[in-house]
Amino acid sequence: MTDRRNRTARQQDAAHHLHPMTNPKRLAEEGGTVFDRAEGIYLFTEAGDRLIDGLSGLACVNIGYGNDRLAEVAATVMRRLPYLHAFVGVTNPWAAALAEKLAEITPPGFERFFFASSGSEAVETAIKLAHYFWRLQGKPHKRLIFGRNLSYHGNTIVATSLTGISHYHPQFGLPLQGLVRHISAPYWFRHGGDLTPEQFAEQCADELDRAIKEAGPETVAAFIAEPIQGTGGMIVPPPGYWSAINRVCKKHDVLLICDEVITGFGKTGRWFASETFAIEPDLITMAKGLSSAYLPISAVGIGARVNEALLAADEDFEHGFTACAHPVCAAVALENIKVIEDERLIEHVRENLAPRLARHLADIAALPIVGEIRQCGVLVAIELAADKATRRSFPAEKKVGEACAGRALEKGLIVRPIGDILGMSLPMITSEDQVDVIASILKAAITDTARAL
After folding, report:
1. 98 - beta bridge partners?
2. Where in the chain is the domain with CATH 3.40.640.10?
3. Which option is the CATH number for 33-63+344-452: 3.90.1150.10, 3.40.640.10, 3.10.410.10, 1.10.8.50?
4. Residue range 295-346, pLDDT digits in tens
5. How far apart are CA 326 and CA 348, in angstroms?
6. The CATH number of 69-342 is which of 3.30.300.20, 3.90.550.10, 3.40.640.10, 3.40.50.970?
7. What is the pTM for the complete model shown?
8. pLDDT of residue 170
């Protein structure tokens, strides 16, 4: 019989915890890393190491760690109303106030919001809303969804099917047949060839136009896309891309679903990247930064056209989850938005962090193995390349990105290796002095990696 007495957290975890995106055999044998404290932009391991979290968790802790205002609100509401469902018209003051606040800060035309607990649930809801909308319009055959290669939309069966990163599919026999078709990502550095970024943007939109025509516009419900493709490599679309996509969706009467789970709540220097890129969505999914991930909550913003159809239908919307509009989560999300406003964090990103980052990234771009820098607000990709001029990649077996991220970690900075891309999503509270430290670590890690090749 296993002796469970006096086991460390690392031992308990290795024995009993099935982690996401982790090799369970290796974890059971080697154990994981235990963090037991966080403050500001720093994470602290159980062993006492202090690390700068250059990812803000999973691109979610927008206001940084340890904000007492959110903790106090959570405790107060948990004591007063620890749970309430939202079925059959039941509501609570915090969910109502949050919905009203979202109507204020989202793009014009978004006046109604559905609450869930994760980005995946929000995406699932958005797809059901799109299908329901077309049935209400008397067009039930409009069910096909178009997505993009290198996209990431979550981990339910539908959300994983929509995801355009193939290694998420084989273990589960996905994607679902007949649900989704993927087109090219607007990834100019790798696929732009001799085209200018603007020409490549038009080429990508033309591909969507042709794909919808080939499928038959009468069968296509929606196009779903992230404003910036996070998990796919922090792919910032080239100029003109989103205006062309807006045009194609309107031309074929296809709903545009904007997945703002990563980009929402200030990271790009605006509340939503839909504003940053002048996107004209019908539905917006949001999570992560909605509560800075202090508690799990997500939402779907419902644009005017879909909202009007729901109201005109005059029937129950047969969809929901146990924790929809959870009062404690809603209260924390509302306070999170107030913190962003009170501390002027979006202005800080736009006026201080983004320019300071850009100056450092310009220097980093000159390093020999840096092929391209992509930045929008606090979202950053540093793409490493064997040859700048030809954009030639390193051989995959060299794992250059992983090695470089490992060197950054040794120097006290967490970044995410995505192949040979170093991805970052800095907390919005990061100071300019802290940006200087982050840039110094990045330069040193990349320089050391280049020397070791």
Report:
1. none
2. 69-342
3. 3.90.1150.10
4. 999 999 999 999 999 999 999 999 999 999 999 999 999 999 999 999 999 9
5. 30
6. 3.40.640.10
7. 0.96
8. 97
Q: 20 is written with which tokens?
A: 């996401």
Q: What is the pLDDT of residue 2?
A: 59
Q: Write phi, then psi, for 9 (nearest 5 degrees).
A: -60, -40
Q: Taking Cα atoms as reference points, which of 263, 279, 178 lies closest to residue 229?
A: 263
The answer for residues whose C-beta is within 8 angstroms of residue 124's C-beta and 6 or more apart is 154, 156, 158, 159
Euclidean distance between CA atoms 109 and 90, whole angstroms: 25
Q: Find the radius of gyration of the CA atoms of the chain.
A: 22
Task: Compute the C-alpha angle 418/419/425, nearest 5°.
Answer: 20
β 370-376/379-384 pair status: antiparallel
- Positions of the chain with pLDDT under 70: 1-3
Residue 448 backbone class (left: φ over 0; alpha: ψ -120 to 50; beta: rest): alpha
117 phi and psi angles, rounded to 5 deg = -115, -15
Structure tokens, 375? 């930045």
The b-or-e profile of 83-102 (16+ CB within 10 A means b, else e) is: ebebeeeeebebbeebbebb
The end-to-end CA distance of the chain, in Å, is 49
How many angstroms separate the most distant Cα atoms in the chain? 67
Nearest to 55 by CA among 425, 443, 446: 425
108 preceded by cis ω (within 30°)?
no
Residue 325 falls in which region: left (phi positive, over 0), alpha (psi -120 to 50) or beta: left
Burial of 392 (0-12, 13-18, 19+ CB in 10 A): exposed
40 by DSSP, 3-state: which? strand
Closest CA to 127 of 164, 97, 154: 154
Q: Could you please report the per-residue DSSP string of 233-269?
A: T-BPPPTTHHHHHHHHHHHTT-EEEEE-TTTTTTTTS
Q: CATH 3.90.1150.10 region(s) of the chain?
A: 33-63+344-452
Which is nearest to 363 in space by CA: 451, 447, 443?
A: 443
Residue for token pair 């005109």: 312
**Cα separation, 225 vs 299, whole angstroms:** 16
